[in-house]
Amino acid sequence: MAFNLSNKKLRNLHRDIGYVFVGLIIAFAISGIAQNHRKQFKPEKYVYEFKRVETDFRLPKETITKEAVEAFSKQYQLEDFKQFDVRKDSTLVIAYKDADVTIKLATGKGEINIWKKKPVLAQMVFLHKFNGNNWWLLYSDIFALALIFIAISGLFLMKGKYSFSKRGWWMMLIGLIVPIVMLILFY
């Protein structure tokens, strides 16, 4: 028995797989745009509270200890301390789960930013980046294969003067030129 995938069957399969994954396609597209612009804004977080502070942290940077940072954290009720670092410009940066602190060691002045998650966008970005669960990893692989199917099957849905063989192939080539040029220039 030969496998026969008529144009009608291909259309139906293309449509139904598209229906199943349309939510995730949109979520990944939106979170992908947000990730592309993560240097301009934090796609997962927004500033909930902002405080200016004056501290005893001063140069030289070797005087900054974990104990001093922990005492500062306790004083300002900052929880879930992750790490601290002194940048080349003598700015102390302290990272917490839901906050960050920057202090100019020349003056001891700085700011505390307490972060909240952006509703919906934070969850989309989480799904886009998450790979810590085998079930989600399997689902993501199935989703990737479905995207490949949707893209390839979409090439063959049209017939006549708008078909892939008449017009679609050169439009596809136009779409491939930009990524190829980017790879040549920047990879």
Task: Please provide a written account of the structure.
50% of the residues lie in helices and 20% in strands. With 187 residues, the chain is an alpha+beta fold. Helix 1 packs across helix 3 (121-129) and helix 1 (7-36) crosses helix 4 (134-155). The model has no long low-confidence stretch (mean pLDDT 92). It starts with 6 loop residues before the first helix and ends with a helix. The protein has three domains: 1-43 and 118-156, no CATH class; 45-117, no CATH class; 160-187, no CATH class. The protein is built from five helices and five strands. A five-stranded antiparallel β-sheet has the order 1-5-4-3-2, with helices on one face. The radius of gyration is 25 Å and the shape is elongated.
Helix- and strand-based class?
Answer: alpha+beta
Unreliable spans? none
Computed over alpha carbons, the radius of gyration is 25 Å
How much helical structure, as a percent, in the residues?
40-55%
Which key features would you list for this structure?
5-stranded antiparallel beta sheet, 3 domains, 187 residues, alpha+beta
